[in-house]
Amino acid sequence: MPAPEHQKIDTSVPHSARIWNYWLGGRDNYPVDREAGDQFAQVFPGIAELAQASRHFLSRAVRYLAGEAGIRQFLDVGTGLPTVDNTHEVAQRVAPDARVVYVDNDPLVLVHANALLASAPQGVTSFIDADLYDPEVILKAASRTLDLDRPVGLILMQITGHITGTAEAHALVRRLMDGLPPGSHLAFNDSADTSVANLEATQQYNDTGAVPYHLRTPAELAGFFDGLELLEPGVVPIAQWRPEIDPSVAVVDVDAWGGVARKP
Predict the structure, then answer these.
(1) pTM score
(2) What is the DSSP letter of 154?
(3) 20 to 30 Å CA-CA from 107: which of 116, 133, 138, 257?
(4) What is the Cα–Cα distance from 189 to 150, expressed in whole angstroms?
């Protein structure tokens, strides 16, 4: 799928999706992204660990939703570049008939959309070129693949920091959830302002001219779940959310908080 003419890939300015891909060991990035990623890691060495913890949290949350919660439809907004264990791969391992809609507006992500569309034969995977600032557009387009009268798992991972105002960010997520029926779930995580090093590294990143990212307090991150029924253990550092029990591996906190909640 070629990049739209109006969205050329700018390789002169670092981009968060490509840097995230670099931290996860992917290859879909450019020298400017690797340089920015290395500079960030020099100030905040824990960033690669945070990126990996976010991916593991996504896997655990989607496995729960597709398994115990019985969700068969997923709306993943701010997909990013494909790496390992994308939402549809995790969901369709549990439920091969799961239907997954990805949403992103990054031109490089659109170029790689076909890699995301390798759905299980019984399921469906599709891709929407849209922006988190347009929840009604997202919902209308998603309705072509998903039955919005049936529960949906809304996936938001490390994306809301791109929205400057906390009240606006909360409102945009609420509008998405308002368009989904009772029994739908929100699986969410984002970086917190709990590390001085992360705050400094993020400010330096924002100063490069890239689309800025805004860290929030744990209380502000918990606000994304207002009006929903939080599942245990609540909104916690993501490594603590239902970790896989392995006595040989210690649970290491990272500076990101998240949780899963059900719409009553």
Answers:
(1) 0.91
(2) E
(3) 257
(4) 24
| SS3 of 78-140 | CCCCCCCCCHHHHHHHHCCCCEEEEEECCHHHHHCHHHHCCCCCCCEEEEEECCCCCHHHHHH
Residue 198 and residue 254 in contact, taking contact as beta carbons nearer than 8 Å: no
Read off the pLDDT of residues 240-260 as tens digits, 9 standing for 90 and up. 999 986 555 556 789 999 999
Count of all residues that appear for the chain in the document: 264
Which residues are CB-contacts of 129 (< 8 A; sequence separation ≥ 6)?
Answer: 4, 104, 105, 110
pLDDT tens digits, 115-171: 667 787 899 999 999 999 999 999 999 999 999 999 999 999 999 999 999 999 999
Question: From CA 113, how far away is CA 203, in angstroms rounded?
Answer: 30
Contact present, 77 and 154 (Cβ < 8 Å): yes
DSSP state of 248: T
